[in-house]
Design brief:
single chain; 2 domains; 2 strands
C-alpha cells in the first residue's frame, strides 16, 4: 500500500514515469534499496494502479538508443482514492515506521481524521497493555521465572515506548509540526 500511496502522491505533484521515481527514491539516500523496492516492483504497481483506473499513461518519451518512457498522470479516481489509502495505512499500521509514507503525505488528508485514527489506536494499545499487565502477578514455576521477567521487561519497555511516541506524534500533528 505504501508504494501505491507514494506513486499517487508523486503524480499529484506532476506527471512522471517509473524509472524517474525510482531514481528520486535512491538519491541521496538509497531508500529504494532499504525498502527492497526493485524496478520491477515499481512497474508492477504502476501497472496495477493503471488497471484500477487510478493513473493513466499520457505520453511516451522516445529517445535515441534508450527505451521508451511511458509517462503517467493521476486520474480523478486516483485523486479520490489517495486520501482513502492514506487513512487505511494509518488504520492498519502497527508501528510508526509503518506510517512514514502517510505522514509524508498529510497534505492530502484531513489531519483531524488522522488524529482520530491515531487516538483510537492509542486507546487500544493502552487498554491492551492494561489487560496484559494484570498477568504480572501470575504464579509461574521457578524454572520459567527468568523468562517471564525478561519478557515482562521487554514488552513493558516496548509498549511504553510505543505509547510515548504515538502521543508525541498526535501532539505534533495537532500543533501542525508534521
Amino acid at each position: 500500500m505504501s508504494i501505491r500511496i507514494f506513486i499517487l502522491s508523486k503524480l499529484m505533484e506532476d506527471n512522471n514515469y517509473p524509472y524517474k521515481l525510482k531514481k528520486q527514491l535512491s538519491e541521496p539516500i538509497p531508500l529504494d534499496e532499504l525498502g527492497g523496492l526493485t524496478e520491477s516492483k515499481l512497474y508492477y504497481h504502476f501497472d496495477s494502479l493503471a488497471k484500477k483506473g487510478l493513473i493513466e499513461p499520457v505520453e511516451i518519451i522516445k529517445e535515441e538508443h534508450r527505451p521508451d518512457k511511458q509517462v503517467f498522470a493521476i486520474t480523478s479516481k486516483g485523486r479520490e482514492e489517495l486520501p482513502k489509502l492514506i487513512y487505511k495505512l494509518f488504520e492498519k499500521a502497527d508501528v510508526i515506521t509503518d506510517m512514514v509514507v502517510g505522514l509524508a503525505n498529510l497534505k492530502y488528508v484531513e489531519t483531524d481524521k488522522v488524529v482520530e485514527i491515531l487516538e483510537k489506536k492509542l486507546i487500544t494499545i493502552k487498554a491492551g497493555w492494561e489487560k496484559i499487565s494484570q498477568f504480572d502477578h501470575v504464579q509461574t514455576y521457578k524454572d520459567s521465572e527468568k523468562i517471564r521477567e525478561f519478557l515482562n521487561s521487554y514488552f513493558s519497555t516496548k509498549t511504553e515506548h510505543t505509547i510515548y511516541w504515538l502521543e508525541e506524534l498526535i501532539m505534533r500533528i495537532k500543533q501542525g509540526e508534521i
